[in-house]
Design brief:
The chain has 253 residues and is α/β, with parallel strands linked by helices. It contains 9 helices and 10 strands.
Length: 253
Amino acid sequence: MQTSSTRYRDEYDTALVAQWDALLGWTDRRAAEGSFLVDVLSARRARSVLDAATGTGFHAVLLSQAGFAVTAIDGAAEMVEQARRNIATMAARAVPCALGDWLDHESLPAGPFDAVICMGNSIAHLFSRADLERALCNFRRLLGDGGTLVLDHRNYDALLAGRISAQDRTYCCTGLKASVDLAVVEPDVVDITYRTAGHAPATIRTRAWATGEVGAAIRASGFCAPVLYGPRGVGFDPDGSEFVIHVATAADR
């Protein structure tokens, strides 16, 4: 199956973005994540953070409220517009928010940043190993030596092996009357369908990256071997964690 790493630009249209905040469930999502992201960035003395997949601005707002200097980007124009609205009403300080394409270094904001975060299973929009490494190399360029990368994705290994449920609304999408259904299309392609009350279902296509593949790409892109966590920063369970969180340090150039 030929799949483009830019198809998400069409998938995140007005109809899907209009329900995204309700799907996410900001209050419950904050509780589901806990303080892990703030804690790990604080422990590494990060102050400036690039939110590389801001969506509608959840993490940008969260980190701004925690005192970080945040810059936000997303590749989908509709997401950027909604993020700007959310940031304007909820962020504790100004957060620049713009379109940015991970695969185009020239479109990304100038660094260096102390940390780059890429959350919400966003790397699953990249469908080739070359694109994954290109994006990660661009993240590395935006970090100083010793900077921090925090990146997550669904635990596709366990999903494809039938070790965890194909539904998850306890961590990522916690909105009231929200549901998430995952369907395996091919061995490395999974369709995710979102449903919220009052909206038509919306489906996006994702690359089912194996945890080992992502870790190898991170190391090949100028980072030390990542440490793996599950949701809320607990120890990663290959058989039970719905998501995998990679925390990696930028190696010296």
